[in-house]
Amino acid sequence: MESYAEKFRDALVEETKRRLLEESFPRLRQCLSMLTDEEIWRRPNPHSNGVGNLVLHLCGNALQWIGSGLGGDADERKRQWEFDERGPLPREELLALIQKTEETVARVVDQVSPEDLLEMRRVQTFEENGLSILVHVVEHFSYHVGQISYFTKALKDVDLGYYREVVQSEVKKLKSL
Ligand code: NI
Fold it and tell me: What is the structure's pLDDT at 1?
């Protein structure tokens, strides 16, 4: 029988995969598919990053924190480059990086043990346990995918449909009143 620690680990891993693999990554791809290469690398002003930079930054962060910090992969992150790159990089290159990051997240997160959740590790310049690594990557994706979504909506004047099911069920409820 599974211990409480194992059940807790399973629940946390499932939730991490749900938020990253079922929400953030698809939203990221959706936004990129709606933008031209020029728009992906456009900076609203010199103090703001382009979408392409945010993609490099998200992937760099996840590969460093989850891939290297939790999974023991080599840490090859070049953080300053994520912001300095002016692009446009080929779209295929961005999509390949997203794919690599997604596969790394899935592979490493599936192998996390209950002990990993509390064990301290060195990531970037921080001391973090496995739980804080997972929470950080989820919140970091949510933050920057939110920025990318706002930029895409502002530029394209579209509904991205992230809460389609919720909206539909509310409409149904209103109609039945
Ligand atoms: Ni960030």
Answer: 84
Per the CB < 8 A criterion, the answer to whether 58 and 148 are in contact is no
* Residue 61 Ramachandran class (φ > 0 left, ψ -120 to 50 alpha, else beta): alpha
Distance 164 CA to ligand 1 centre (A): 27
Parts of the chain with a pLDDT under 70: none
The pTM assigned to this predicted structure is 0.94
What architecture is domain 4-175? Up-down Bundle (1.20)
> What ranges do the domains of the chain cover?
4-175
Say how many Å lie between the CA of residue 57 and the centre of ligand 1.
7
Q: How far is the CA of 147 from the centre of ligand 1 (A)?
A: 11
Measured in Å, residue 134 CA sits from the centre of ligand 1 at 15
